[in-house]
Every structure is written in structure tokens, then in C-alpha cells.
């Protein structure tokens, strides 16, 4: 397979990153090494969530990401059929010319994926595969065959929110995948794996639990041979609480993963996203500022189109460049953050799990079985479903119910708090409404037709959509 066969967009990127990004080549290899070089140069690495079914478009997206005026890494996001293991459906869609919502890395021949990457992926522009699967063995096999060595997910974070796969099976699947990825170290590569545990459910999971699951998944990866790991945390509802959470994540990782190449990746808000362009940009800017303030090394961006549709390549590049420009204007590691107990809560959860079994996989299964880890509003059969969260009057995520999680001594005596359906509906749109209101200078959704509104818990109105 050649570039000409693909009809791919443009020649290989022999000139490297755009002038604004600078030359980060020549110091170490692999995804983790690239991020470390950027950190040493004082730059935040920014990354899209891009994925296209067409090899030609996927290559164009990677080239555009590489050429952006930012320090970037590339993304190949997998389609929904491949995510759930329905590779026959992905292949039928390709044969019928049906557009997919991501790149079917298993459905495409390995030679096709190698051609997509030819002249694009190298030590100055690593590419990560993003998938969302609890049964990712064929995805891992395909990415390794194509010459890729960076991906993400986790046995908990890609099982409970996205599948009905029993957690025990997901753990076994992820053991196989970690061990396969780790074998690449024998070839001189340094494979990299990112936890998704800091992003559970996208929103309404209090930071202490996000930090704990992110750290536990990182320890699981390390136990199965992966030496270069990033730990995720998704922007939530309050910048100060988020800053405290990121510092807690860094502190716990330093304590529990001392022999691991690691960095922290921030995800721009993953819940209902502002519908106004200005509100969407403001939320991305806030995420970039959070990353720089806390010394996080990488940021996953979102675009102005996020609330409406899958973004174009140009919209992804605009988001990358806005985030990079914001980061360049912010002082890194700025100032102390408060301590409201996020570290203590995460530490208590991690410790409780570690005491269950020396094998992290068995410990995670037992922890969910006993309710020591309990993700609010998660309907997976292996989640206890006894915890609840809410957003307080200051805009911070709090526990309304902790179920059997061993954090009562940290959370305090203010619980329990009844969460109504109206409370939950209001909380789901809290961030969207906050940023849209600020952008519009008037109540959110006032510009929308009546049929496109729902009533908020506080009596106001918000936009309704199906993200």
C-alpha cells in the first residue's frame, strides 16, 4: 500500500511541526518521551479526539494536527462498531461506502493503516489510538501490527461506563493487552498507555474517586509490564476543586509509581458542552489554564462544534491552536491550591483496594463487589450503585451518598442528601448553562425555541439535546 494508492492528502511532513511549536526531535523516543521533551521546553502538549473512517481523511487529519501552530500529538479515534467488537459490521460499512464515526483499525488492512501513518508518525509526532473498548484485544493487535505503540483506556474505565462486559472479563482482557503492549519494549520502543479512570462517566463523579481510579489503573498497567504511563483527569465543575484534584493525582502517582515514566493529561470537560461558540471557547480556555496552573503536561481539547456534531479537521485545529495560545500566556505551576480533602479521600480509596489482594485485577473486582469503589449514576451490573453526587451552591461536586466506600471519615457528617430527578437534570447541564449564560449575557436557552428547552432544578431553563 502506498500514499498514491490512498490518494492521501499531501506529502509526508518532512518539515516537522509548525514554527510556533519548535523542534522537539532528537531527545528520546516514544509518546512519553515526546511529552517529557515538551515539558522541559515549557510547552503544553495538546491533542484532538479526531477519528475518520476514510484512510484519506484520517491521514489529512493527522497531517493537519501535525502542522498546527501548537505542540501536538496525533489521535486515531476508533469507530463505534470496532469499539464493541462488531468488526464484520465495520467491514460491511467500508464495503458499502458508509461513513463511520471513527477509524476502523481492525477492519482496515494493516498496510492501509501503515500508509496512513507513513511520513506522519515519528519521534517528533507520536500518534495515540483511542478506542473505548472493554474487549480491546483485536484493537491492540491491530495497532501493534501497524507500528503504533501508544493507546489508552483501562479495565474499569472502559468497562463500567461503556459496556455490559463483566468487570472480571474486562480485567482479564486488559491483562492480555498490557502484556502485548509491553512486549514492544523488546524492540527498542517504549510503549505508552494512558488511564481513562480520571474521566469516569464524563461528569458528576467527585474528584477523589476519579483520582483513585486513575491511579489504580496506572498501577494495574505497571503491574503488567507497561513502564510509560499517563494519568488522566477530566475537568469538572469548579476550577479550584479541579486544581486540588490534579495536585492530589500528581502526589499519589509520585508515591505509588516511583519507577514509572509518567505524566498527567487533562481532558477538557466531557459532559454537556456549551452550545454557544463563545461559551465553548471559554470552557476550553479554562481547561488549558487548569493544565498549566497545575503543571499537567498534556491536554485533550474540545471544539466549538462539540454540542452539535462531530467536528471538522479545521475545527479541531482551531481548538488546538486556541489551547496552545492560552497555555503560552499562562505562568506554569502557579501558586498553591487549597486542601478540602481530595487527596485524603483518594488515598483512602486506593489503600482500601490495595489491601484486598496483591493482584490489582482481583483487587479491583473485589473492590467493586464490596462497594469500596462505587461510581455514581453508573448502571453497570458490577457497580454497587449506592453512591450519589450533587453540585453544591458554590459549584463544587460533593457526595450525597457514599454507599460502602471507606471515606466517611473524610467526607464528614453532612451526608446523606437526597438527590431528586430535577437535581440530577440541573447538575447535568450546570457547566453548559454556566458558560452559555456568561457568553450570551442573558439566561441560557432564551434564544432557543420552546420545544428545545427543559426546566432546570433551580426553576430556570436550559437547552435540551442528546449528547
Structural descriptors:
467 residues, alpha/beta, six-stranded parallel beta sheet, two-stranded parallel ribbon, disordered C terminus, Glutamate mutase subunit E, methylaspartate mutase activity, cobalt, Cbl-dep_enz_cat
Could you walk me through the main structural features you see in this protein, from its secondary elements to its overall organization?
The chain has 467 residues and is of the alpha/beta class. It has a domain at 31-329: TIM Barrel. Helices cover 41% and strands 11% of the residues. It is built from 17 helices and twelve strands. The protein has helices at 3-6, 30-40, 55-67, 80-83, 87-95, 110-117, 137-145, 167-182, 207-223, 239-256, 277-294, 313-328, 342-354, 360-370, 408-411, 421-428, 430-440; strands at residues 45-47, 74-77, 127-130, 150-153, 192-195, 228-234, 261-267, 298-300, 387-391, 397-402, 453-455, 461-463. The strands form four sheets. A six-stranded parallel sheet has the order 1-8-7-6-5-4, with helices on both faces. A two-stranded parallel ribbon has the order 2-3. Strand 9 (387-391) and strand 10 form a beta hairpin. Helix 3 runs parallel beside helix 12. The two termini are 37 Å apart. GO terms for molecular function: cobalamin binding; methylaspartate mutase activity. It holds the Pfam family Met_asp_mut_E. One of its GO terms (biological process) is anaerobic L-glutamate catabolic process.
Amino acid at each position: 500500500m502506498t500514499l498514491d494508492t490512498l490518494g492521501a492528502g499531501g506529502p509526508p511532513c518532512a518539515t516537522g511541526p509548525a514554527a510556533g511549536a519548535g523542534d522537539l526531535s532528537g531527545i528520546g523516543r516514544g509518546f512519553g518521551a515526546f511529552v517529557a521533551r515538551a515539558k522541559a521546553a515549557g510547552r503544553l502538549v495538546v491533542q484532538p479526539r479526531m477519528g475518520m473512517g476514510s484512510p484519506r481523511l484520517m491521514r489529512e487529519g493527522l497531517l493537519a494536527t501535525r502542522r498546527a501552530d501548537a505542540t501536538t500529538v496525533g489521535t486515531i479515534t476508533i469507530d463505534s462498531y470496532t469499539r464493541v467488537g462488531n468488526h464484520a459490521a465495520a467491514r460491511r460499512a467500508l464495503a458499502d461506502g458508509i461513513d463511520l464515526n471513527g477509524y476502523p483499525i481492525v477492519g482496515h488492512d494493516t498496510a492501509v493503516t501503515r500508509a496512513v501513518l507513513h511520513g506522519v508518525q515519528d519521534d517528533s509526532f507520536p500518534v495515540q489510538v483511542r478506542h473505548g473498548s472493554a474487549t480491546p484485544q483485536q484493537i491492540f493487535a491491530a495497532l501493534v501490527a501497524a507500528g503504533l505503540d501508544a493507546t489508552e483506556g483501562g479495565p474499569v474505565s472502559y468497562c463500567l461506563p461503556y459496556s455490559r462486559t463483566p468487570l472480571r472479563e474486562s480485567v482479564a482482557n486488559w491483562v492480555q493487552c498490557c502484556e502485548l503492549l509491553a512486549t514492544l519494549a523488546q524492540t527498542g520502543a517504549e510503549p505508552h498507555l494512558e488511564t481513562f479512570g480520571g474521566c469516569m462517566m464524563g461528569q458528576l463523579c467527585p474528584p477523589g474517586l476519579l483520582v483513585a481510579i486513575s491511579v489504580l489503573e496506572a498501577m494495574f498497567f505497571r503491574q503488567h509490564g507497561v513502564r510509560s504511563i499517563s494519568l488522566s483527569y477530566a475537568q469538572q465543575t469548579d476550577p479550584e476543586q479541579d486544581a486540588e484534584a490534579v495536585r492530589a493525582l500528581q502526589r499519589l502517582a509520585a508515591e505509588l509509581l516511583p519507577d514509572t515514566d509518567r505524566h498527567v493529561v487533562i481532558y477538557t470537560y466531557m459532559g454537556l458542552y456549551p452550545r454557544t461558540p463563545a461559551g465553548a471557547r471559554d470552557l476550553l480556555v479554562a481547561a488549558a489554564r487548569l493544565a498549566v496552573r497545575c503543571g499537567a503536561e498534556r491536554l485533550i481539547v474540545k471544539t466549538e462544534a462539540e454540542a452539535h456534531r462531530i467536528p471538522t479537521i479545521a475545527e479541531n485545529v482551531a481548538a488546538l491552536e486556541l489551547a496552545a495560545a492560552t497555555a503560552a500566556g499562562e505562568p506554569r505551576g502557579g501558586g498553591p491550591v487549597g486542601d478540602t480533602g481530595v487527596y485524603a479521600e483518594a488515598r483512602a480509596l486506593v489503600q482500601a483496594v490495595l489491601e484486598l489482594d496483591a493482584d490489582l485485577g482481583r483487587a479491583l473486582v473485589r473492590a467493586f463487589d464490596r462497594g469500596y469503589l462505587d461510581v455514581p449514576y453508573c448502571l453497570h451490573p458490577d457497580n454497587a450503585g449506592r453512591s450519589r453526587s450533587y453540585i453544591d451552591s458554590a459549584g463544587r461536586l460533593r457526595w450525597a451518598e457514599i454507599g460502602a466506600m471507606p471515606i466517611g471519615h473524610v467526607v464528614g457528617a453532612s451526608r446523606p442528601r437526597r438527590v431528586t430527578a430535577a437535581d440530577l437534570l440541573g447538575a447535568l447541564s450546570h457547566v453548559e448553562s454556566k458558560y452559555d449564560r456568561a457568553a450570551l449575557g442573558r439566561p441560557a436557552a432564551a434564544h432557543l425555541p420552546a420545544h428545545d428547552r427543559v426546566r432546570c432544578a433551580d426553576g430556570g431553563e436550559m437547552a435540551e439535546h442528546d449528547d
